[in-house]
Amino acid sequence: MLDSCKLKSVCNLPLIYNKKINTSGTSNADVPLADPGMYQLDITLRRGQSLAARDRGGTSDPYVKFKIGGKEVFRSKIIYKNLNPVWEEKACILVEHLREPLYVKVFDYDFGLQDDFMGSAFLDLTQLEVNRPTDVTLTLKDPHYPDHDLGIILLSVVLTPKEGEHRDVTMLMRKSWKRSSKFQTQSLRLSDVHRKSHLWRGIVSITLIEGRDLKAMDSNGLSDPYVKFRLGHQKYKSKIMPKTLNPQWREQFDFHLYEERGGIIDITAWDKDAGKRDDFIGRCQVDLSALSREQTHKLELQLQEGEGHLVLLVTLTASATVSISDLSVNSLEDQKEREEILKRYSPLRIFHNLKDVGFLQVKVIRAEGLMAADVTGKSDPFCVVELNNDRLLTHTVYKNLNPEWNKVFTFNIKDIHSVLEVTVYDEDRDRSADFLGKVAIPLLSIQNGEQKAYVLKNKQLTGPTKGVIYLEIDVIFNAVKASLRTLIPKEQKYIEEENRLSKQLLLRNFIRTKRCVMVLVNAAYYVNSCFDWDSPPRSLAAFVVVEDMLEDEEEEDDRDDKDSEKKGFMNKIYAIQEVCVSVQNILDEVASFGERIKNTFNWTVPFLSWLAIVALCVFMVILYFIPLRYIVLAWGINKFTKKLRCPYAIDNNELLDFLSRVPSDVQVVQYQELKPDPSHSPCKRKKNNLG
């Protein structure tokens, strides 16, 4: 039995206090309820029996919620199509007192619809004996239909009194991976014993290669498969491969490895169905503790509860330097450490670890004039610092609208075109954290060593909100590595919210696309004027160019429609909504593509424009010495033999990868720095303090 709560991703901490308690005897009845001591409640959710059927097929997809004091502290995984599910999941919960019972609720998961209630029960914590494992059987009831038999839930619980003095703590935040995709957070505190603590121990690099002989889930004998990965609270969803039983994904992504001994990656395969619940194809797991480090493992995994295989490449590597420290301890102020960092990213080390592009140090100093989120007119602010999928947090400053954090965060840069996001939240013990403001700062726009006041923006980064945040940022990187990294696929964030249908967003994307189309129309008018000989010199030049470069291209579009299916009214509504979202996303992609081409030529990001010029100059020099036919031949040989030389290489287009780094007009607005009020100047603040 645990004597202290080890704070891992499985531990949910609804209350964060440490107080001494006095216990005499083994029963909680001996403990005065007026003395609100701290207890640790270790729960193992075993299984359910004879649960209620909520789906038309006579089955359910149950999952369980635990609540204490009205706050959700645990949510289990979903067991599909099973009325006798087996979870065997553990939760570690700290409770401040035993007056509040544990509220257990069971739901049936419905994709795209409201989940169905399957029953609930209460566990009276005052009836538990301390330091003794207890098996508990809870009978599920519906308050509206108390006579209905809804089955039972089996638990094992251990209640342990906690002792110890209050310590200074550092905040970490976990994503609550709810199906609504809304950003909700729970607070998790770690002891800040060490001045510099590394928060994850390694990186798990996963490449999803392909699927083989998957189960056909559609009436046409095919499927539209995609795969979901989960490691702790981290999740990733692959793209959808339409109409195939042997999909080729070739997708690569990374997970953080928090535990020394590894972990279990849960993998599920699904068939996408528009307008109704996606079909379950199968599941499998990867035990990371069984894999050796610094070595790539090819895994062919048999899907359980289904058919077919998934082929993966998994590599475990040591963690990059990602850390939190106090303001008095930072790498760049230590002359020896600074020289080592500069040497690591010097031009002489171009081919040493191409993935390690640079070093980022962020000083989160303070904020001023924040929004009041609590009824007392105050807030409990903490700050989240994100770089792609790396996320670190400050501690919480309670009841303060002008908090001072004075923390230093360090990251390794894998892509110099990444955007640093700093978000301020209000910690709320009873519900998810409240949003107070956010800034997005492209790494290439940072001025090293300058303390600046950034005006906080709204969630969409389209306008200001109340308050400013003071940051000092330093970026050191190798320009050659950064340029080479530009020509490979961009890292995808696996915690991004799914796009939803929005009338304003749909209209905005339509207008953006219309602008791009009008540019093409105007270009067509210009070309047409050449044929009309409005300007003889221009028409003559166009005639010579077209004669040399004219090529014929043919395109074929193959379309294969699915068999029509009978759908109910709600299914049709969801199908229409999904089509509208797809149209919205396609308009955004088309408009962004045109805007990125424009922004390359108008020097929105000078680094990228210079890179394009250098690449064109190099190509011209090569073309001067080597005939074009040899260059085309070498390019063709490289493309056609790529799969032979590297069978599991991820397909990419260097030009599209380059353009993906150029911001669209929407992103330019989001990254635009708002001018703060002159009263928020750091220099003026120092003068006021001296006065």
TrEMBL record:
Subcellular location(s): the record lists: Cytoplasmic vesicle, Secretory vesicle, Synaptic vesicle membrane; Endoplasmic reticulum membrane; Recycling endosome
A Pfam family per the record: C2
Gene Ontology molecular function: calcium ion binding
Q: Which residues form a coiled coil?
A: none
Q: Which UniProt keywords apply?
A: Calcium, Cytoplasmic vesicle, Endoplasmic reticulum, Endosome, Membrane, Metal-binding, Repeat, Synapse, Transmembrane, Transmembrane helix
Native species: Rhinolophus ferrumequinum
Q: Which GO terms describe its cellular component?
A: endoplasmic reticulum membrane; recycling endosome; synaptic vesicle membrane
Q: Where is the C2 domain?
A: 20-138, 184-301, 335-456
Q: How does it sit in the membrane?
A: Multi-pass membrane protein
Name used for this protein in its record: Multiple C2 and transmembrane domain-containing protein 1
Family membership, please give it: Belongs to the MCTP family.
Query: Iron: present as a keyword of the record?
Result: no
Q: What is its main location?
A: membrane
Q: Which PANTHER family match?
A: C2 DOMAIN-CONTAINING PROTEIN, DYSFERLIN-RELATED
Q: Name one GO biological process term.
A: regulation of neurotransmitter secretion
- Transmembrane annotation, as ranges: 607-635
